[in-house]
Amino acid sequence: MSDKYADGLKVVKEMLGDQNADGMQSLLGSSKFGAQRAELALDFVFGQLWGRPGLDRRGRSLVTIGILIALGATNELKFHVLAAINNGCTVKEIEEALYHSIAYAGFPRATQATEAATEAYRAAGMID
Q1: pLDDT in the model for residue 128
Q2: What's the fold here for domain 57-123?
Q3: Other CB atoms within 10 A of residue 124 CB
């Protein structure tokens, strides 16, 4: 495993937990359909981008949440709202990011994102 994979695995463990990290790691070298996504994510996304200087993880989380809201990527958003909490964001700050997205991504995307975040928080036992 290269240094960037190891760095990426560490970031995933810290942000998304051991279960997600183990799942990604189990795909390394696998011939399963789509398995190289894990390699790309660990090396590039988590190994290189999340460790760059200039933005801390909290800031990167808020940017990521905004992008995922605009894309309507609600499944990915569920992981990243919980990662944002692990990166120092509060539930209130994430809620404000959802409100702010209304102006730039529209009500439908913000509503979808709010529902996805609520689902993720409930599953994690963070809200009723």
Answers
A1: 80
A2: AhpD-like (1.20.1290)
A3: 12
